[in-house]
UniProtKB/TrEMBL annotation:
Pfam families membership: p450
Listed name of the protein: Cytochrome P450
PANTHER family the UniProt entry points to: CYTOCHROME P450 BJ-1, P450, PUTATIVE (EUROFUNG)-RELATED
Presence of keyword Oxidoreductase: yes
Coiled coil: none
Family classification: Belongs to the cytochrome P450 family.
Organism: Nonomuraea guangzhouensis
Classification via CDD domains: Cyp158A-like
PROSITE patterns found in the cross-reference section: CYTOCHROME_P450
Keyword Iron attributed: yes
UniProt keywords, alphabetically: Heme, Iron, Metal-binding, Monooxygenase, Oxidoreductase
Stored InterPro entries: Cyt_P450, Cyt_P450_CS
Length: 404
């Protein structure tokens, strides 16, 4: 399967919710740079090997696709998706401006700050589990715990009302659209989201609180610069989407992976010190992580023996890279004690995930509380009946039915 021979449909479908497509291993062995057709119908090049994905994500010659590039469109909608929205272009995408923006945001997401938030996360998880137990079994762990916990945390950080979370969920889904929503639905949702966030920033400017957006409104960077209103709105929207959608899905997938083979859950019950490495291994082992990261190449460059011409859109599959046998011994096995575990679930390079300390802390907190409160937890459906979320850029399970 060389670059010229076959064009695969991307994302590559998988028959089982927790298993990778068989094509990943074939591509890594025979076709490290593969031609793929995206949901939009446009073509791109897919990289799946660990070293290649890490290199592309870390190389500044591969940039985030923007409106001005002649990049492949990810989805069929002309605008409004997370990869091609005004939101994406309001935040500086490269160079010193991007680094300056990241520095202003990242001090809110340090490991130290997240550790301070952890007791609150655990207390919230306790309350949500109490509610779930009261409603009785079977319960959908994603709806009961996986979704509300990260929403509560990110709303608290941004100073926005948790009561609006159903609207955030819909707005997020339209931004993450691949094939689920029409252009009209996306445009309407985007306009509502922008309007909501703009009004929220006006309110915060009048009465600042102890939250991230209040600080961004009032603070300047090292050069005395402030973020524009458009950048503040885009930052609020971006953090709200990224801060809940991926983690909400990951909580459900992590628990499903651990319960899919009961021995994994029993191992954690017997040794709680494995929680941290188990979370990292769930992030690596996740075969349903979503679309991956698109990058745009402005000049001719060789990757894995294939010369990519300038103007090529490259899709990096971090999930495939995380299952690369050449990078991880026993890559197809879930090893809860795996260390070191240099997975690429949060990307690499200048655009690696800002909120990774937040996601890790939430996942560890949830797992600790579940092990303590529900040691008898098990899936209420066969693993074969788990169903993937379809049509969005983020991977997840539709529901995770459990009993105890």
């Amino acid at each position: 399967m060389s670059q010229g021979e076959q064009v695969l449909i991307y994302p590559i479908p998988s028959d089982a919710a927790l298993e990778p497509p068989v094509e990943w291993a074939q591509l890594q062995r025979k076709c490290p740079v593969a031609r793929v057709t995206l949901p939009s119908g446009d073509e791109a090049s897919l990289v799946t090997r660990y070293e290649d994905v890490k290199r592309v994500l870390s190389d500044p010659r591969f940039t985030r696709p923007t409106h001005v590039d002649d990049a492949a469109r990810i989805s069929d909608n002309e605008s409004g998706g997370v990869f091609n929205s005004e939101m994406a272009t309001a935040i500086p995408q490269s160079g010193e401006a991007h680094q300056r923006w990241r520095r202003m945001i990242s001090k809110w997401f340090t490991v130290k700050r997240m550790a301070a938030l952890r007791p609150g996360m655990e207390a919230m998880a306790e309350r949500l589990i109490d509610d779930m137990l009261e409603r009785g079994r079977p319960a959908d762990l994603k709806a009961s715990l996986g979704f509300p916990l990260p929403v509560w945390v990110i709303c608290d950080l941004l100073g926005v009302p948790d009561a609006d979370r159903d609207r955030f969920a819909y707005w997020s889904d339209t931004l993450l659209n691949l094939t689920r929503y029409t252009q009209a639905q996306i445009d309407t949702a985007q306009a509502e989201f922008v309007q909501y966030m703009a009004a929220h920033i006006i309110a915060k400017r009048a009465e600042p609180g102890e939250d991230l957006l209040s600080e961004l409104i009032t603070n300047t960077d090292a050069d005395g610069g402030r973020l524009s209103d458009a950048t503040l709105v885009a930052t609020g929207m971006g953090l709200l989407v990224a801060g809940h959608e991926t983690t909400a899905n990951m909580i459900g997938k992590m628990v499903a992976m651990l319960l899919a083979d009961r021995r994994r859950w029993e191992l954690l019950l017997a040794d709680r010190s494995l929680v941290r490495t188990a979370v990292e291994e769930a992030l690596r082992f996740d075969a349903n992580a979503g679309f991956g990261m698109p990058r745009y190449l402005g000049e001719d460059l060789e990757v894995a023996g294939t010369v990519l011409p300038g103007g090529t859109t490259v899709v990096c599959s971090m999930a495939a890279a995380n299952r690369d046998e050449s990078a991880f011994e026993g890559a197809g096995d879930m090893d809860l004690g795996r260390s070191p575990n240099l997975h690429l679930a949060f990307g690499a390079g200048a655009h690696s995930c800002l909120g990774q300390a937040l996601a890790r802390t939430e996942l560890q907190a949830v797992l600790e509380v579940l092990l303590r409160r529900l040691p008898s937890l098990e899936l209420a459906v066969p693993v074969a009946d788990l169903r993937r979320v379809e049509g969005l850029a983020v991977g997840g399970l539709r529901e995770v039915l459990v009993r105890w």
